Amino acid sequence: MSLTLGILTIFGLAGVAEAASHVVVQAGQTIESIAADEGLVGREAEIRQLSGLGAAAQPSPGAVLLLPLDRGGQESLVLTTYGEVTARLGAATPRPLVSGERLAPGAEVCTAAKSFVTLRLVLDEATRHHDDLTLMPESCVVVERVNLEGAERSSLVSLGQGSVTVQPNLDGHVPGRVTVRAWGAVTSGLGGGHRMHVERGALRAEAVSQPLEIYGGSARLDLSAGEGSRSRGDAPPDPAVKLLIGPETLLPEDHSVLRAPDFTWSPVSRALGYQLEIATDPYFTEPVLVMESPVAEWLPEAMLLPWRARGVYWRVIPVDRFGYLGVPSEPQHLRFPPGSGGG
Question: What percent of the chain is predicted at pLDDT more than 70?
Fold first, then answer.
């Protein structure tokens, strides 16, 4: 991990006017110098207008500066929903959201309690490479910008409340970059495998399987996979902490028939609790249940699952004393008994 001061162009594409869609501004940089770096000399007024700045204003360190795109950004796709999910654009009344819908830039998406949604932020139709974002229960995001230029994919999302996961890019896929901001703090990373959470006055980030950058107070902290940090926006990010590694799952065994909702796993040293997740796909882009347990087991009297599914996958995430979620255990597949579920 390393702490870096100065200017960062999020996508590393200086001199290409269309590919980069935003930069993170730090101390000493101006609209004019950024326009020169990005090949946008003469378009400073557009940059100011897009970023909500006055005619002669300069951005504050740590701000996300929007750059003009010569071609319109993509619409996002609602990949999967579970429970109550709503969307609204501007001051419109929130409306129910269902799988398969398209989202215009600026749309706000929210999940209710016990509800989930996965958004396909940007998709390369030629290669089918994509970047997916999953919202946990009681979470809200605004999809500000998604952009595809050549093979480069970029997305900018504001997290208003709750928690999101940037899903890992599939093996062989060109990694896309997703930037998330909240409370004046910013995270940005390639290839997915990241989690972000809004806390009281802070943005907590966990680099689960890929490196992640986190910004605040005109500083950048580089997180390695398996590390986490918090940023309060007006101060440098907290020192990185090592994330706990997921436990060994015990029962039910992988590929077994789910006859009783009795889940057990090996204790993790220094864990103060655990988060058990159940989804209908092995990538957990279709979550249907998240439960917390203070001990290495979850033994509910009953468990409601989607009856149309053929089975489910489950995994466990340890939680440390600082509140960081660790690296998940390996997903385990469970089949429904004959005559139930999706057949």
Answer: 91
